[in-house]
Design brief:
Layout (H helix, E strand, L loop, with lengths): L3 E5 L11 H6 L1 H14 L3 H7 L2 H5 L1 H22 L1 H6 E6 L3 H8 L5 H21 L2 E7 L3 H11 L5 E8 L2 E7 H13 L4 E4 L14 H10 L10 E2 L10 H11 L6 H10 L4 E5 L4 H9 L4 E5 L2
Parallel strand pairs: 1-2, 1-8, 2-7, 8-9
Antiparallel strand pairs: 3-5, 3-6, 4-5
Helix pairs in contact: 2-5, 2-8, 5-7, 5-8, 8-11, 9-10, 11-12
Length: 302
């Protein structure tokens, strides 16, 4: 029997039009967006379906949008393939996606999770406005070399390794001067490509302060529970059962690099061999294939 794990996408997976067709054909998915509108106080579905793209890409909107779209995809899965819900034995999510994974695993309720990601998005949007920046994926160079390039670029701006996604796919994050500098250096160093990411700030770096402490205050008022299945944390590529540990790791995640490759390797090392990407986009399937070309991953998109 295969060992099944679910993977949930993070910010950057959003696209105008996402979940429109699903909600038109699947009433439980539409009901998820209706619940979200009542909690958020605005028409999230309308932004997801019709844009404008600039509004959807704003951190305070894209984070709730991806969380809700991932939950809508789960509703489709519950209807069409309920046996997979029962068979899933672990979960992981890329950055924001960790909240989707924790909600699926029962560590946090949908409504509390949505309010948290809304507050997280607002706090990170405010930090991004204070220090304009962004992120970019550097393709074709390994971490040691990217670390060296970031160190060199810090003569011009502020930039660090932020997401360790897969072999030869490392995202850097920093202010605009730092991103511009490391992009030039990476291209000169032989990177296959440098791809700007659809995010609004220097996520997973110290430039996100004080969003981490604002999130800590929000988390303190939300009940968390031990997840019913292991959820791999972004900050250390390990599962945690204690609610206080989960809270602390979610706060750390705001400033810390995302260890996605290590998280996937942890699941592979624990014997998981069948993966499902739940939510918008197909990025995680591609990353997993770069980590292990033999592993099977199926998209369950919106």
């Amino acid at each position: 029997m295969p060992r099944i794990a679910f993977l949930f996408p993070g910010q950057g997976a959003q696209a105008v039009g996402m979940a429109r067709e699903l909600c038109a054909t699947h009433p439980p998915a539409r009901a998820v967006f209706d619940r979200a509108a009542a909690i958020l106080g605005y028409d999230l579905a309308g932004i997801c379906w019709n844009g404008p793209e600039e509004r959807l890409n704003a951190t305070d909107v894209s984070q709730p949008a991806i969380f809700v779209a991932s939950w809508a995809a789960l509703e489709r899965l519950r209807t069409e393939r309920p046996e997979l819900i029962e068979a899933c034995q672990a979960a992981a999510g890329l950055s924001l996606g960790e909240y989707s994974a924790l909600a699926f695993a029962g560590a946090i309720g949908f409504e509390d999770g949505l309010r948290l990601v809304e507050q997280r998005g607002r706090a990170m949007q405010a930090a991004a406005a204070a220090v304009p920046g962004g992120m970019a994926s550097i393709l074709g160079l390994e971490r040691g070399r990217v670390d060296e390039l970031c160190a060199a670029a810090r003569r011009t701006g502020r930039v660090w390794v932020a997401n360790l996604l897969a072999p030869g796919n490392i995202a850097v994050s920093g202010d605009r001067a730092g991103i511009d500098a490391v992009t030039r250096l990476a291209e000169a160093a032989g990177a296959i490509k440098v791809v700007p990411l659809a995010v609004a700030g220097a996520f997973h770096t110290e430039l996100m302060r004080p969003a981490d402490q604002q999130l800590a205050a929000a988390l303190a008022g939300v009940p968390l529970h031990a997840p019913r299945i292991p959820v791999i944390s972004n900050v250390d590529a390990a599962p945690h059962a204690e609610p206080d540990e989960i809270r602390a790791n979610l706060v750390r995640q705001v400033l810390s690099p995302v260890l996605w490759e290590d998280s996937c390797r942890r699941l592979l090392g624990d014997g998981f061999d069948q993966f499902y990407e739940i939510g918008p986009g197909r990025v995680l399937k591609g990353l997993l294939r770069r980590i292990d070309r033999k592993v099977c991953c199926e998209n369950f998109a919106v």
